[in-house]
Design goal:
Elements (H helix, E strand, L loop, with lengths): L1 H10 L4 H10 L11 H12 L10 E2 L6 E2 L4 H11 L3 E5 L6 E6 H8 E3 L15 E3 L18 E3 L5 H11 L3 E5 L5 E6 H9 L14 E3 L4 E5 L4 H8 L15 H9 L8 E5 L2 E8 L4 E8 L11 H12 L1
Parallel strand pairs: 2-3, 7-8
Antiparallel strand pairs: 1-9, 3-4, 5-6, 8-9, 10-11, 11-14, 12-13, 13-14
């Protein structure tokens, strides 16, 4: 009996957290048998929050969609339409000087106003509740009272701490700054919630498409964000970055490493055996889209000796 009791105690971990993690990982565990698959995933994500930092969930600087305070309200509306976001950071001069953010609701309030009863035909306004204020579209963003404050946080801050801070301050956007005070990224409350419940798709999110697409056996179109193992899985085992895979993780990083600079659109990058890359999209700061082309080996010309050549010519003459 004592030996059996010692064996049971040995199975116990050092904390309740560890016990829960072990039970959730084991689908056949009696303690978590009542949980559904989604519930199990959410609970596992909650337990991982203590280990997650802001830089694990933030949108990196290169992907930030923002607008300068000197732009007009019309430019802001166009940016909202193109980006599909409900909030956009506002900066002065450059991204290292973000002053706040604008919510699309505040922008719409500036270009509309309620229609009075006397403004619509026959005194009815059932079909035209607001009217557009075209002159407001030419106003500078910085001169309008629509820029809201943001939270500035370090990349090492725990995700749970920022989520609690956002709830208390009722601010849904934070700017991640590096040790020199520069902008390192941006994080919204949606990014934090996705760390718990998984990816949240709304009506404006485009359907996820494959990062690597096969055109034919020798040509592939790929996003620069594609991971190297994913590229190799689609292209084939002959796509072998070799030791470079130890330094970079993505296709864009590989091409940047091969070129030694951010290549311009249309530039051809070589250096990987059996392949060449054509840059389809690039903005000067990062590569976005690439064409991968398998370079076919051409057959080497057969060497013919002088005697054999003379014999072949004689045979042909006959």
């Amino acid at each position: 009996m004592w030996n059996r009791l010692r064996a049971m105690l040995a199975l116990r971990t050092v904390s309740l957290r560890d016990d829960l993690e072990v039970a959730l990982e084991s689908e056949g565990s009696a303690e978590t048998a009542d949980f559904t698959g989604p519930e199990r995933i959410i609970l596992q994500n909650v337990l991982k929050l203590g280990e997650m930092r802001i830089d694990d969930v933030m949108v990196p600087r290169a992907d930030i969609v923002a607008i300068e305070a000197s732009e007009t309200l019309g430019d802001l509306i166009a940016q909202f339409r193109e980006a599909g976001h409900s909030r956009l950071p506002v900066y002065e001069d450059n991204l290292d000087n973000i002053t706040g953010f604008v919510h699309v609701k505040d922008a719409l309030r500036r270009i509309t106003e309620p229609v009075k009863m006397g403004d619509s035909e026959n005194g009815e306004n059932h079909h035209v509740p607001v009217k557009l204020l075209s002159p407001a579209l030419r106003s500078k963003i910085g001169k309008l009272d629509i820029v809201r404050t943001v939270i500035f946080v370090p990349p090492s801050m725990p995700v749970g701490d920022l989520l609690q801070q956002m709830q208390q301050k009722r601010v849904h956007m934070a700017i991640v700054i590096d040790e020199y005070g520069g902008t390192d990224g941006v994080v919204t409350i949606e990014d934090l919630l996705e760390a718990v419940v998984g990816e949240i798709e709304d009506e404006h999110d485009e359907l996820e498409t494959a990062l690597v697409r096969k055109v034919n056996s020798n040509i592939f179109i790929a996003s620069a964000r594609a991971e190297l193992p994913e590229v190799q899985a689609v292209v084939g085992p002959d796509f072998n970055p070799g030791d470079r895979a130890d330094e970079v993780d993505t296709l864009g990083g590989l091409v940047f490493d091969l070129a030694g600079h951010v290549p311009a659109p249309g530039e051809i990058v070589t250096g990987l055996k059996g392949f060449e890359f054509e840059v389809l999209q690039s903005d000067g700061r990062q590569i976005k889209k690439l064409k991968i082309k398998r370079v076919l080996r051409t057959a080497r010309p057969r060497k013919v000796s002088a005697a054999n050549k003379a014999g072949e010519e004689q045979t042909a003459a006959e």
